Amino acid sequence: MRTFDLATTPLRDLNSALHTIAPGTNDTNFEVVNPRGSHSVAVGIDQPVTVEVRGSVGYYCAGMNDGGTVTVHGSAGPGVAENMMSGTVVIEGDASQYAGATGRGGLLVIKGNAASRCGISMKGIDIVVRGNIGHMSAFMGQSGHLVVLGNAGDALGDSLYEAKLFVRGEVKSLGADCIQKEMKPKHLRLLAELLDKAGVTDVKPEEFKRYGSARTLYNFNIDNADAY
Fold first, then answer.
1. How far is it between the farthest Cα atoms of the chain?
2. How much is the average pLDDT of 34-50?
3. Three-state secondary structure call for residue 166
4. Which residues, at least 6 apart from 78, have a Cβ–Cβ distance to it below 8 Å?
5. The dihedral of CA 181, 185, 189, 190: what is its sign?
6. 112 in Cβ contact with 132 (< 8 Å)
7. Residue 186: which residues within 8 A CB-CB, separation 6 or more?
């Protein structure tokens, strides 16, 4: 395992090492100590590497991740795992706003709470949050899944497309064109798979409610003008 101490080593050296891994190498395990809220830690990974960050990070940690496994043993600032393509990002603490924004694939697990706009414009990413999420989460969510074991804030799923939302707790309010939908057997199976992938074993899929798009805003209609 290669260790980078950000108290003495420039962050650029860490990200450069992650971007210049030779094909077929076994040197794929990295440890980051003393991150001290550094921004853009472990961004742009495009190899199946494992990165353990021992502490909290600032904004855009693990952004554009494509195949890596990044675990933050602390909390994360805004934009964690933004535009992720594939791989896994785990936040042991809390995450700030727009976690997983525009994510196209992969799995983001937040073991604490997530702030506002979690999963905004999600495009295929799977997000599992053990705690609560803030307002405007999954705004314009196009595809993928958002699973919340806690509560959701105002305007959940506003202007939602085809992302699927599962919330175990209370939803303060639903956004424009987002409605509660029937939880069918296929959705229970899907949710069970998502919970298993995220390592969640202490809750059951039957405890969740499903939310999705009412599909009334796909095309402009003067009767819906107030909702646009």
1. 60
2. 96
3. strand
4. 59, 60, 96, 97, 98
5. negative
6. no
7. none
Sheet holding 209-213, edge to edge: 2-5, 29-33, 50-54, 66-72, 86-91, 107-110, 123-129, 143-148, 164-167, 209-213, 178-181
Residue entry with tokens 């798009």:
213
Among the listed ranges 87-96, 133-142, 152-161, 210-219, which one has the minimum average pLDDT value? 210-219
In contact, 3 and 33? CB cutoff 8 Å: yes
15 SS3 class: helix
SS3 call for 54: strand
DSSP string across 171-228:
BS-B-TTEEEE---HHHHHHHHHHHHHTT--SS-GGG-EEEEE---SSS--GGGGGG-
In this structure, are strands 178-181 and 209-213 parallel, antiparallel, or unpaired? antiparallel
The Cα–Cα gap between 37 and 174 comes to 33
Does pTM top 0.70 for this prediction? yes
Residue labelled with tokens 């414009």? 121
